[in-house]
Design brief:
With about 140 residues, the protein is an alpha/beta fold. It is built from six helices and five strands, in the order βαβαβαβαβαα. α2 packs across α3 and α4 runs parallel beside α5.
């Protein structure tokens, strides 16, 4: 399942991504926000994290103005590997090398067309494993 979360600055881009997913008949979970009224990104990230962690196959797309706040908030949870991606190459590497389970986007820097390209790459790239898995274990504290 794809989990969408945004603050007020990411609201419009989240809505455009929802429209894209609807056209593709892809079901998403939208945890908010549901308007341009100010909300705090840590609160929205927390709601998104809860849904992402319900199933190991879930991924999140978290959006704020810069993408930085959401990535910082999401990465506070040791089961989340959130990656702020500004282009397709970053999205590919976030999944292939880092097994990212949350994509963070900066609405102030991306239009819907570019964001959709990034999302497509993120969702269609698989984790490579191997040496990358060893490195991720060091981050999570696993032996």
């Amino acid at each position: 399942m794809i989990v969408l979360a945004s603050d007020h600055r990411g609201f419009m881009l989240k809505e455009e991504l929802k429209n894209f997913f609807n056209k593709e008949n892809i079901i998403v979970i939208d945890v908010g926000t549901y308007s341009k009224d100010p909300v705090d990104y840590p609160d929205m990230a927390k709601l998104g994290i809860e849904k992402v962690l319900e199933d190991k196959n879930n991924v999140g797309i978290f959006i704020c103005g810069s993408g930085i706040g959401m990535s910082l908030a999401a990465n506070r949870n040791n089961k989340i590997r959130a990656a702020l991606c500004m282009n397709e190459d970053m999205a590919m590497l976030a999944r292939k090398d880092n097994d990212a389970n949350v994509l963070c986007l900066g609405a102030n820097f991306l239009n819907a067309k570019k964001a959709i390209k990034i999302v497509k790459v993120f969702l269609t790239t698989s984790f490579e494993g191997g040496r990358h898995a060893r490195r991720l274990k060091k981050i999570s504290g696993d032996k």
